[in-house]
């Protein structure tokens, strides 16, 4: 019987979205590696952040991630970093997502191995989060990252915020990294035709779970000065329970309260086909539609 390959996805977030030369060097370790496939990378100048999506065999992906973290550590100086997105490290977030023939338990173990190696090789303190979290209060990435790079030196001294790996001192230029395991999520932004960040923040509060909104939404307002707009930026952590279309329609409804229009929206990184099919079925009024009716689904092994 042939070996059944395990497949994991990793969506690494780095704090560099403007210098294309640096971005290419950070991405290079994912190219030409056996057992690793570079699926996508998207840089955002306003956020000053690049999101890299790779997939492959667990150990091969882990090795490529650790190598890339080393490159980012050399190239990114967090003391000079500015951007609209919350961040605490050069390599900010490293989530592992089990895709095929792999359990969440195995993804958690992979996250722990990766975190340990990052700390040992580069002396970067690492927090485990989401399913890999060592404590309940560390499951939520927003809580882990609160204070950002500038506030981390003091935060690490607090009794409840000792890193899972490493000393209570940030790396002087690379900061702190979070490594975790989670299910697939949808990174989604909705553009508003207003420069008033308070409106974007009010709408974000209306939809996010922590403020009484949708259970599987983490959201905030962001100002995109270059375009003269604001965004409601969010992670949909379980698209099977909170659909993209439901969030989009709610944001449109809330925006009307302030005389603001929705200009459009964008998905960052890759997205499960099921999440888009669900929204397509809603807007087209399809009934009895399922993934079984999608050609690409029937071509998969």
UniProtKB/TrEMBL annotation:
<dbReference type="GO" id="GO:0030409">
    <property type="term" value="F:glutamate formimidoyltransferase activity"/>
</dbReference>
<keyword id="KW-0963">Cytoplasm</keyword>
<dbReference type="GO" id="GO:0019557">
    <property type="term" value="P:L-histidine catabolic process to glutamate and formate"/>
</dbReference>
<dbReference type="InterPro" id="IPR012886">
    <property type="entry name" value="Formiminotransferase_N"/>
</dbReference>
<keyword id="KW-0369">Histidine metabolism</keyword>
<dbReference type="InterPro" id="IPR037064">
    <property type="entry name" value="Formiminotransferase_N_sf"/>
</dbReference>
<comment type="pathway">
    <text>Amino-acid degradation; L-histidine degradation into L-glutamate; L-glutamate from N-formimidoyl-L-glutamate (transferase route): step 1/1.</text>
</comment>
<dbReference type="Pfam" id="PF07837">
    <property type="entry name" value="FTCD_N"/>
</dbReference>
<dbReference type="GO" id="GO:0005542">
    <property type="term" value="F:folic acid binding"/>
</dbReference>
<feature type="domain" description="Formiminotransferase C-terminal subdomain">
    <location>
        <begin position="184"/>
        <end position="298"/>
    </location>
</feature>
<dbReference type="InterPro" id="IPR022384">
    <property type="entry name" value="FormiminoTrfase_cat_dom_sf"/>
</dbReference>
<dbReference type="Pfam" id="PF02971">
    <property type="entry name" value="FTCD"/>
</dbReference>
<dbReference type="GO" id="GO:0005737">
    <property type="term" value="C:cytoplasm"/>
</dbReference>
<dbReference type="GO" id="GO:0019556">
    <property type="term" value="P:L-histidine catabolic process to glutamate and formamide"/>
</dbReference>
<dbReference type="InterPro" id="IPR051623">
    <property type="entry name" value="FTCD"/>
</dbReference>
<feature type="domain" description="Formiminotransferase N-terminal subdomain">
    <location>
        <begin position="6"/>
        <end position="183"/>
    </location>
</feature>
<protein>
    <recommendedName>
        <fullName>glutamate formimidoyltransferase</fullName>
        <ecNumber>2.1.2.5</ecNumber>
    </recommendedName>
</protein>
<keyword id="KW-0808">Transferase</keyword>
<dbReference type="InterPro" id="IPR013802">
    <property type="entry name" value="Formiminotransferase_C"/>
</dbReference>
<keyword id="KW-0290">Folate-binding</keyword>
<dbReference type="InterPro" id="IPR004227">
    <property type="entry name" value="Formiminotransferase_cat"/>
</dbReference>
<dbReference type="InterPro" id="IPR037070">
    <property type="entry name" value="Formiminotransferase_C_sf"/>
</dbReference>
């Amino acid at each position: 019987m042939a070996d059944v390959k395990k497949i994991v996805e990793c969506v690494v977030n780095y704090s560099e979205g403007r210098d294309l030369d640096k971005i290419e060097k950070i991405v290079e370790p994912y190219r030409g590696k056996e057992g690793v496939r570079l699926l996508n990378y998207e840089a955002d100048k306003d956020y000053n952040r690049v999101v890299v999506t790779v997939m492959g065999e667990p150990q091969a992906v882990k090795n490529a991630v650790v190598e890339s973290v080393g490159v980012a550590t050399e190239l990114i100086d967090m003391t000079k970093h500015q951007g609209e997105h919350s961040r605490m490290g050069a390599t900010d977030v490293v989530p592992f997502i089990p895709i095929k023939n792999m359990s969440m338990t195995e993804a958690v173990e992979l996250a722990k191995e990766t975190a340990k190696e990052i700390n040992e090789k580069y002396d970067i303190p690492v927090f485990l989060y989401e399913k890999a979290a060592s404590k309940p209060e560390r499951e939520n990435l927003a809580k882990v990252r609160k204070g950002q790079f500038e506030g981390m030196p003091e935060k690490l001294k607090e009794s409840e915020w000792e890193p899972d790996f490493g000393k209570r001192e940030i790396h002087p230029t690379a900061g702190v990294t979070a490594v975790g395991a989670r299910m697939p999520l949808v990174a989604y932004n909705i553009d508003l035709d207003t420069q008033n960040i308070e409106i974007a923040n009010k709408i974000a509060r209306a939809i996010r779970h922590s403020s009484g909104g949708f259970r599987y939404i983490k959201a905030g307002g962001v100002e995109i000065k270059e375009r003269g707009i604001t965004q409601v930026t969010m992670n949909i952590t379980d698209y099977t329970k909170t659909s993209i279309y439901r969030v989009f329609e709610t944001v449109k409804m809330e925006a009307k309260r302030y005389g603001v229009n929705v200009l459009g929206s964008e998905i960052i990184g890759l997205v499960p086909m099921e999440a888009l099919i669900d929204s397509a079925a809603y807007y087209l009024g399809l009934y009895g539609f399922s993934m079984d009716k999608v050609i690409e689904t029937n071509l998969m092994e």
